[in-house]
Amino acid sequence: MVELKTRITEAGILQVPKELVEVFGQDMKMITGTTAAILFPAGISYEDVMRSLEIIRADLQFRLSKERVKTKPSGKAATGRVAKVEIKKSRSRKHQKSV
Q: 35 by DSSP, 3-state: which?
């Protein structure tokens, strides 16, 4: 999954990266919401767009979970330290400690 940056010129023209035009072609459709938009080839079915959006959604969920791990609720970066846990095997259940 690739995240591309683009901009809209002062004349109101959306600059589409060359890589996207090579894959999607010259004719594209866009559906917008209040905080996001999707851009897709004009000839593709909405069913295919939905399948692609499911993959994009899963990728966004993964990126969000990575972002949450990097930052603690206090706003400080996580140290990356991991507590060491030792597990000993026991022959009987009464010798096992509950954690």
A: coil
